[in-house]
From TrEMBL:
Pfam families: TrkA_C (PF02080), TrkA_N (PF02254). Residues 1-121, 231-348 form the RCK N-terminal domain. GO terms for cellular component: plasma membrane. This is Trk system potassium uptake protein TrkA. Keywords: Coiled coil, Ion transport, NAD, Potassium, Potassium transport, Transport. Residues 243-277 form a coiled coil.
Length: 452
């Protein structure tokens, strides 16, 4: 497939890396020649210098031969104009990133239909949805949904006193047969391990497990001696689009919310818009203000200002004074590896959230075997939902007879409305969907799993 990406920012770079790594023909268009030359050396992409809103530049980039067009610059206008221009060249699928909230007043489907764009994605809306998922599954530090929400891939931090700490994977495997979950990976420091039977869970490990949605509370209790519940008191630091949307959603869940915003005029507007949220004129970096508002009793702090520095420092300050958990927006991916050591519970990357949403759409729209995909923040692992071909050689085939590359593991099988946590003896059926966890070294092997 020939894919044209307009915009070599963080989302464009992430998409280029993923899609070119899968063997797709990727053309990257941007006006920053220096950045394009660097990416040409690092990635297998064809760079084209110029504006994505210029028909001449798009023709030079080969728009007439393009199957998928993705516009993800920092300018809404360029993204929309580029997609509209691409219609003249009969590009099959068009995707645009749009930040302006006015485009969403009538719903994205109306915008998509009016402009002839297949998917309009708002990074702020995507971030809001991701935060709400993490609030619902409060004990998890990472969440990905598969099988239309029937099964979750969940990341948990193992802490001293958790029942799972010190257990081998063989011991956990005995429990898995009864409680329907599967530990698919352990992240230890910057290393991702596909665990074997004699691997032990250690303090500060991040455990990734797959479980059916109804089984999650029982599995949490079994492994971590606690269960997810909605927080009672939440502090939101940052009154921008994300902060305001999250506050509005939490009000509907009857959660006590305090929102801190530095700009006094924004505070006035938010106080009028939000019904039950306490809006405070503060930047979240004044310990006195936080303690006066009982930050020490907060179940959750969500830092979503436009500044990574403010988000990190305000989260650390809140944790120091007793806040139980922090969700912290981080735009610069270079900060991510050090955040766990600093005590940041859940870093969220707008780039990765938006890119994952686009990748899921691309896979589903592509009509191939890959149904959905998610990249995991801060490590080199991914999860993919892949359809088993309707070929005789795969019918009734035991899972252990399918040659999986080293560094990969099947976490679940979706069969219609049924979710199966598999063993090696589980037999495949036509059109089964496999939820496969794998490290980057195993990516090519997973992609070619059914190429027989």
């Amino acid at each position: 497939m020939r894919i044209m990406i307009v915009g070599a920012g963080m989302i464009g770079q992430h998409l280029s890396e993923k899609l070119s790594g899968e063997g797709q023909e990727v053309v990257l268009v941007d006006s920053d020649e220096k950045k394009l030359r660097r990416l040409e050396r690092e990635l297998n992409v064809m760079p084209v210098v110029g504006s994505g809103a210029s028909p001449r530049v798009l023709e030079k980039a080969g728009i007439e031969q393009t199957d998928l067009f993705i516009a993800v610059t920092d300018s809404d206008e360029i993204n929309l104009i580029a997609c509209i221009i691409s219609r003249q060249y009969k590009v099959k699928t068009r995707i645009a990133r749009v930040r302006n909230e006015d485009f969403y007043a009538q719903g994205t489907s109306r915008v998509e239909k009016t402009l002839g764009i297949d998917l309009v994605i708002s990074p702020d809306l995507a971030m809001t949805e991701e935060i709400l998922r993490l609030i619902t599954l409060s004990q998890a530090v990472e969440v990905a949904e598969f099988g239309h929400g029937q099964v979750d891939l969940l990341g948990y931090q193992a802490k001293a006193g958790h029942p799972c700490v010190g257990s081998t994977l063989a011991e956990l495997r005995d429990l898995q047969r009864t409680y329907h979950f599967l530990v698919v990976a352990i992240t230890r420091g910057e290393t991702t391990i596909i665990p074997r039977g004699d691997d032990k869970v250690e303090v500060d490990d991040k455990l990734y497990l797959v479980a059916r949605r109804p089984d999650v509370p029982l599995v949490e209790k079994l492994l971590f001696a606690t269960t997810s519940r909605l927080p009672r008191r939440v502090f939101i630091i940052g009154g921008g689009s994300i902060g305001a949307q999250v506050a509005s959603q939490l009000e509907q869940l009857r959660i006590e919310v305090r929102l801190l915003e530095q700009d006094a005029k924004v505070c006035e507007r938010l106080a009028e818009q939000l019904e039950n949220t306490v809006v405070l004129n503060s930047d979240g970096l004044e310990a006195h203000d936080l303690l006066e508002e009982d930050i020490d009793q907060a179940d959750l702090v969500i830092a979503v200002t436009s500044s990574d520095t403010t988000n990190i420092l305000s989260s650390l300050l809140a944790k120091h004074h007793g806040a139980k958990k922090c969700i912290t927006l981080i735009s610069n991916p270079g900060f991510v590896p050090m955040l766990g050591k600093l005590g940041i519970d859940v870093p969220l990357s707008p780039r990765q959230v938006a890119a994952n949403m686009i990748l899921r759409y691309v896979r589903r729209d592509g009509g191939g075997r890959v149904v959905s995909v998610a990249s995991l923040l801060g490590n080199d692992a991914e999860v993919v939902e892949m359809k088993v071909p309707d070929h005789d050689q795969f019918v009734d085939l035991p899972l252990k007879h399918l040659t999986f590359p080293y560094g990969s593991i099947v976490g679940a099988i979706m069969r219609g409305h049924q979710t199966i946590i598999p063993t090696g003896d589980t037999r495949l059926a036509p059109d089964d969907n496999l939820i496969i966890f794998f490290t980057s070294d195993a990516e090519q092997g997973v992609a070619s799993l059914f190429d027989k």
